[in-house]
Automatic annotation (TrEMBL):
Region (Disordered): 100-137
GO molecular function: sodium:proton antiporter activity
Keywords: Membrane, Transmembrane, Transmembrane helix
Name of the protein in its database record: Multicomponent K+:H+ antiporter subunit G
InterPro entries reported in the protein's UniProt record: PhaG_MnhG_YufB
Domain of life: Bacteria
Membrane-spanning ranges: 7-28, 71-89
């Protein structure tokens, strides 16, 4: 392997390991679910992406051919992480609003409370005779 490729792979591994470390630390140390949600979906995703990119470059320089495995894993990770984070956030918001007591306030302050009109982020029962709801049978 060339020294330039070694340097690039080493830097990508260090950057990826740093992001994974920060994401893992945030997942353990942040107090509430909504705050902990950002650590694995942002930092850890970037860290794993950097590690997979380092693996692709290393495989190309050592063996002389490109592999699509790392690219497919990265693509799958970047597509599924935001969707999973969105679903976790929606479930958490719905659960916080429907369960008595909810969750303790985190460093970002108390969780938002819905007003009398409801909130689009929860699966609240639609009001009767609203535009877009089917008529009563």
């Amino acid at each position: 392997m060339s020294p330039a490729a070694d340097t690039v792979v080493g830097l990508l591994v260090l950057i990826g390991a740093g992001f994974v470390l920060v994401g893992s630390w945030g997942l353990v140390r942040l107090p509430s679910v909504m705050e902990r949600l950002h650590a694995p979906t942002k930092a850890t995703t970037l860290g794993v992406g950097a590690l997979l990119l380092a693996s692709m470059i290393d495989g190309r320089t050592r063996y002389g051919n490109w592999t699509a495995h790392e690219l497919l894993v990265t693509l799958f990770l970047f597509v599924t992480a935001p969707v999973a984070a969105n679903m976790i956030a929606k479930v958490h918001l719905h659960r916080t609003r429907t369960v008595a007591g909810g969750e303790a306030d985190g460093i970002a302050g108390p969780p938002p409370r819905p007003d009398d009109e409801g909130d689009w982020a929860t699966f609240a029962e639609p009001r009767r005779n609203c535009p877009g709801t089917p008529p009563d049978p």
